[in-house]
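Annex B. Sample input.
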Amino acid sequence: MEIYVNGKPVTLTQKDFVAKGGEGKVFKRGSTAYKVYDDLSKMIAPAKIKELMECDHSSILRPKDLILNKKKQNIGFTMDWLGDNLNPLCKLFTTPFRERNGIENDHVIQLVENIKMLISFVHSKKCLIVDGNELNYLVKNDFTTPYMIDVNSWQTPSYPATAIMPSIRDWTTESFSILTDWFSFGVVTFQLFVGIHPFKGKHKSYRKNDFINRIKDRVSVFNSNVSLPPSTRDFNIIPGAYKDWYYKIFENGDRLPPPVAPGTAEIVQVAIKLVQSTGNFEITMIFEIDGKILYHNPEMNITKTKDKLYIGKTDYKVSQGVEVLFTPLESVPVLIKIENEKLQMKPLMAAYTQRPLELTTTEMMIVDNTLYVKNKEKLIELDFRVMGGQTIVPAVKTIWTIEPLSSEIFSNVIYQSVLGRSYLCIPQPNKSGKSSFHNVQIPEIDNFKVIDAKYQNKVCLLIVHDGNNYNRITIIFDDKFQKYSFRIQKGIDYQPLNFIVLDNGVCVTITEDNAVEMFMNRTDKTDVKRIEDPAIDNTMKLCKDGTTVKFFKDNKVYRLKMK
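Annex B, continued. Sample output.
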């Protein structure tokens, strides 16, 4: 595609493609992003671009120069490229993501204050954000620096807003103002603190997800008749001034700007109760350790806490974000971490040394004790061998081509977009021979934004957003990855995916609404068994040991057996 910026031609190719949105496509060359509209009737007016240019802030992704086609028609605009490895704000709502990345409440308080300052800056330029939903913010890996995106929908002095997500809208008024912006800020930042929308939870007088009427009726999570899911964090971690402000705007219906200073948080320990036996399940504790468990793999006998790695009963002091794999023949543990876009590897035991491997990467995943790293347009499978009895030698085993900008690594699966066409890429390691790599087009998800994905044993679950709601998608592949079944559950509450596939093909998942669902990993089996039980909630993180279902919660590991 040939475009013109300031009279100079620029050629954009698939390698420059980043993503497709509802209005057009985004490309990247060097430090510049290019937004090109598919439908020119939706093209933002040049005069509005000029008004948005007044919001000149390093954390606001605003339009810069117009993009023209050969006919000298306006077809888009350029922006600054913010960089790689930015996180959608919604991921910080969930406790598992926070724990994996060492995000403390102090990070969240600073992030909230920085968002507040950005909104105040926008208001000082006589603009309104209007659609300040969680997907219109990105966060750096310091987890305190926010960026505003999709600003072309903002309301400027001469142009009205063009979009707003229902979940952050102030439904008590039909107009938009500085105070409705602050209401949206309140909805989003409340979820940052405690992980739940302020008008979610169960109330007997309202249907599920009926947040519109609850906003109008002022029935928030502060209402004594609302029951909250177990994944909700303690309200006492909210700084005092913000907690008072949230109560006033959500429960009292006041419309006020946020507090000048956050105040202090009252941190308390919350007792968690776990029912050990019910009419449906038998729950048995297997062991407990010192420290909250972040990850447990029974088959590899690995348990990870914030600063310790347990291999069997032996614990090792490790840093945040470290992963571990074992050499395939000798089972020597090797610590893996990405630091400053470099792959860092270190044998866990002092008796071993390692031959260095210089490799730049921004993303990685471990699949069946095999390391995969992303290096621009390459997905690299690494092999580890012990030479001379004590030297670990990493080497490149296989390289596949993936999209450099529009691909993202999740858990055991890569999502990539090829000029708006969606693919799921699934590597399958083979220790004794050539590994396979399945690249399957999934047109059903072309118009969704993929938030989370996980693959295991022919089953892939995704959390996607359609512009208004989060949805959960279940895809089951056949043995050759030539066919698949597709199921979607719309309008869910966003929680991290929590499922396993046992060796007998039974998939077990704990859903976002705290039910157990079970089905087979076969495309010809569509039945889903759903069990609702008071002993089950989605803070119980599932793991498997062959055909045995296990889970971990807090500092304990349990076995879950159906009666």
